[in-house]
Amino acid sequence: MTANTSKSTEGAHEPGGFGALRRLHLSYAGEVQGVGFRWASKLTAERVGCTGWVRNEPDGTVTQELQGTPDQIATYFGAFSRVFAAHPIEYVIAEKSDISPIEDERLFTVRF
């Protein structure tokens, strides 16, 4: 797995605030469809307490919005990187940007 983690700080909230919500908009490219990527994203997000959504795109990429505290998001990426350890897949984070959190969001969903 490789990741291009170029990041926009536009919309970032409370720098260094571990309790502050952060929301990322991500686009993944590579082996991300037909391998359980969305469902693994959902299970991992629920396990670590993140909210948001994930969706397959017609061009073969996957789009995701992931929301949580900085610690939850870091834990998500660490846990998700281990999901496909037994059957590695190749993917990159093609786009990553901070966007405004959704204060009342409670779930992580798979969109169709």
Structural commentary:
The protein has helices at residues 37-48, 70-83; strands at residues 22-30, 51-56, 62-68, 91-99, 108-111. It is an alpha+beta fold. It has a single domain (22-111), classed as Alpha-Beta Plaits. A 5-stranded mixed sheet has the order 4-1-3-2-5. Strand 2 (51-56) and strand 3 form a beta hairpin. Helix 1 (37-48) packs across helix 2. Residues 1-17 have low confidence and may be disordered.
In total, the number of domains comes to 1
Our measurement of the CA-to-CA distance between the termini, rounded to an integer number of angstroms, reads 25 Å
Strand arrangement in the largest pleated sheet: 4-1-3-2-5
H/E series:
EHEEHEE
Q: Biggest sheet: strands, sense, closure? A: 5 strands, mixed
How would the blueprint of this fold be written?
Layout: E1 22-30, H1 37-48, E2 51-56, E3 62-68, H2 70-83, E4 91-99, E5 108-111
Parallel strand pairs: 2-5
Antiparallel strand pairs: 1-3, 1-4, 2-3
Helix pairs in contact: 1-2
Task: Summarize this entry quickly.
With 112 residues, the chain is of the alpha+beta class. The chain has helices at 37-48, 70-83, and strands at residues 22-30, 51-56, 62-68, 91-99, 108-111.
